[in-house]
Each structure stands twice: as C-alpha cells, then as structure tokens.
Amino acid sequence: MSLTLYNDLTRKKEPFVPLKEGEVSFYSCGPTVYDYFHIGNARPFIVFDVLRRYLEHQGYKVTFVQNFTDIDDKMIHRAHREGITVPELAERFIAEYRKDAGALGIHEPTVAPRATEHIPEIIDTIRKIIDNGHAYVSGGDVYFDVKSWPKYGVLCKQNLDDLEAGARVEPGEVKRDPLDFALWKGEKPGEPAWDSPWGRGRPGWHIECSAMSSKYLGETIDIHSGGVDLLFPHHENEVAQSEAATGKQFVRYWLHNGFLLIDSEKMSKSLGNFLTARAALEKYSPLAIRLFMLSAHYRSPINFAPEGLQQAAAGVTRLRNCRGDLDFAAKNRAGDNSGFDMAALTAGLEKLDADFHTAMDDDFNTAAALGVLFEVVHLINTSLKDHEVLPPEFFEVCRRALDTYDGILGVIGPDEAEEGSPEDAEIEKLIEERAAARKAKNFARSDEIRDQLRDRGIVLEDTPQGTKWKREI
Q1: For residues 96 and 29, what is the distance between their CA atoms, to the nearest angstrom?
Q2: Phi, psi of 66 (to 5 degrees)
Q3: Which residue of 23, 71, 137, 161 has the lowest C-beta tally within 10 Å?
Q4: Residue 289: burial class (beta carbons within 10 Å; 0-12, 13-18, 19+)
C-alpha cells in the first residue's frame, strides 16, 4: 500500500505522488510570536512533525518550511504595552517557541523564515497580483480583489454569497468589497513600516506565507498543512493570491488537523480555558503530551483532559519500561538458547511492521500505528517473561524495531544514559550502597535509600541479575 492523504482541496483520500520523484516540498504554518504558543498550536506542530518524519523514513528528501509571523497587530499591541520594539518581542518568543517545541520532540524545520526578512519577496508577489488585475491600491493600502478571482472558495467549498454574508469592513479600511483582504497596509503612527511602491507600510498576514513558501519551495508545492481554523480565511486567501500571482496551482495536497478541546470545549481566552504549551509542560511530561496528541487521528477533534494525559503517561511508562527491560536483559541474559524460536519472533515482528506501515500509509493514522507499537511491546515483554536466556539477535531485532517506530512517532524518548543527567552517577552510587546494605542485612538503610530515590522520581526493580532503575514519567 502506498501513502494516501486526505486532501481538503478535493475532500477525499488520494495517493500521494510528489511533484518531483523522491522529493517532497512541505509548508506548515508556524506561530505568531507575540506569546508562548498554546497547546492547541502544539497539535499541528506535533502531528505534521510525524508526517515529515514518516516521509523521510520512506526515503523522501523533505524540504520542510515552517515560518514565524513576526509582524502583525497582536505583536504591535503587545510590544507597545511592554515598552519594547516588535523585533525585541519576536526574538524573545522565537526563542521560547524553540524551547517548548524542542521539549515536545518537534524537529527543527529545514527553513524557518521570518516575515520581516522577506519584505522584497512580499512586495514582488503583490506587484505581480496587481499587474495581473487581481489587486488594487486604495490610499496607502493594497487589497486583493476577490470578485476578480472566480475560483475564490475552492478550498473552503463555499460560494461568494455565503462568504460575503459574514464579511465586514474594519474601521480604517477603504476597500471596495467586504470580502477583499489586505495585501499591504499603509503606515500608521508608531508601527513598523517598510518602503514600497505604494508608500511605507507593512505586509498583510496572508501574503507573507505565499511569498515565503514560493521563495523556498517554488510556485507549486506538494503539501501545505495547518490547523482547521486556518482553512478559512488564511489558506483560502493564500490559494487566491498565490495563483493570481503565478497562474499556477499553489498546493497539491492541503492537510488540516482537527480542533483540540479543553474539557470538551473549544479552547478560547473568553472561556478561561486557554492553556499555553509552557503551562502544559509544567504539569505533564512532554512525551505524554506527544503520545496523547497522536492517540487520535489527526483530522478528528481531541479532548485535552487530565484523564487522557494520565493514560498517555502510563503508555509512555510502558514503552520506556519495555526498552529499559530489553537493554538490561541484553547485558545480563543474552546467550545461546536453542529453545527460543527466532524464526517465529521475526515473522511476528515482520507482520507487525507491515501493520504499522499500513496504518501510517492510510492518511498517517497515528492512533492505529501506536496500537501496533504496543503490540510490539507485548511481544517483547512476553518473550522476556517466558525465557530466562535469549539469543543476542533477539535483542538486536527488538531494539531495532523500537528505535524505528520511535524515530517516526517520537514517544519513547532518549535512553536514560543518553539523557546525561548529572544525577546518574549519584543514583548508581546509592544503588551500590543499598546493595551492600542488603547484603549486610541492614534493611533499614536499604529501605531508606529506596524511599530517598522514590521521592526523587527514581523507581528501583530488583531482579536476579541486579537492580534496575528508571525515572518516572
């Protein structure tokens, strides 16, 4: 089975065939950096990170572009409120985005362009739209002429009459039609501005993505993704202005993830249920958040609630315990064992591998893929339980399977040894002291050390081969 994706442009699943064989151009809308990104934003960042990883796993060379919107009304208002410049605000929250995204295991994009660094490209795109008869200058502003573009609504599947019913003209706008949207905004006192053929001003939000995606990915790109809340008007406007500028199809596959709900309600500041990713990371393990986000199909809504996060944390613990037990056994229980059926194990893992890829190929169904990963864990745990000695190749193939799936899903995380915690040597020393206390039948000291480590989130497990330890998730 080859990869199929649900294309919002056609409203159906389609086989994925990139424009260039072996290469994928992929644009995903990034954050507006006026604050910490909220947990709803984390969902598209995580799920489309997984799609990118899977495409790379399949052998594609992926150019993944995710932008920073570093100039807009929200940024201007907050910078004024704090008495700093917009660039200073942007620098702060770009750094904070990278900190939280890194904690959630989100890979850095191939290119992370900032809107303010692409003013010439934005101006050039607007000039092309004007020259092609689909935009007009009004005062110091430039507006896209929606009525001049017969295909407007192709992505959101609504006609102009329905769209116009909900459109409005904001104070200060001098556009011909309520549906028209700003490509360039004339300078206002106290706002950042750049020179342009239409006077000093700044770009509109929608045009930024069109200009940046075209610069780094070309005039037609394979995949464009984002949250479903961006489908209209942002992505609809991107389609119109990009194709009006180039005369070519803008995006071949449009992907949108479903809403993230907070206690079964859409997250919003007005309801008081707004939660930043930073606040969520203070309450929950980043691995648990990541597994939770992947536990439902990306197009379905998902409810961010404590029960779901607790289940996800338990799932992460099971995955990490399996890998830890596997590595511990590889050091202490490997040997010749003619009684173990490697052929049966290999066949079982191959069947599960086919199931994993079938799930991912079906519109990257991460929920089903996670189910397969837990079946792999069950197979490994059963083998470890039933056989005291196992052949070295058992450990090799099982570890390879876990590493492969974690390389795509990113829900197991680094080994304890790879985490490089300065506590590790101290923990090992305390475990050695505890072993000596037990040998001397000083059980009070042994229990004291166990309790001390437990209070620090370190769980001990005594086995015939020695004491294993792991951090609680």
Answers
A1: 17
A2: -135, 120
A3: 161
A4: buried
Report the SS3 class of residue 215: helix
305-417 CATH fold: Four Helix Bundle (Hemerythrin (Met), subunit A) (1.20.120)
Q: Where are the domains of the chain?
A: 4-257, 305-417, 421-471
pTM comes to 0.88
Residue 70, helix vs strand vs coil: coil
CA distance 232 to 286: 30
pLDDT in tens, 164-210: 765 665 656 688 899 999 999 999 999 999 999 999 999 999 999 99
Q: How many CA atoms lie within 13 A of 287 on its CB side?
A: 18
- The Cα 195–Cα 202 span in angstroms is 8
Architecture field, domain 4-257 = 3-Layer(aba) Sandwich (3.40)
pLDDT digits (tens, 9 = 90+) for 20-57: 999 999 999 999 999 999 999 999 999 999 999 999 99
Strands 221-227 and 23-28 come out as parallel
Answer yes or no: are the C-beta atoms of 374 and 411 closer than 8 Å: no
The rounded distance, in Å, linking the Cα atoms of 109 and 406 is 19
Q: Which residues of 172-206 are buried (b: 16+ CB within 10 A; e: fewer)?
A: ebebebbbbbbbbbbbeeebbbbebebeebbbbbb
Three-state DSSP state, 343: helix
Phi, psi for residue 85 in degrees, rounded to 5: -85, 160
Q: What is the pLDDT of residue 447?
A: 80
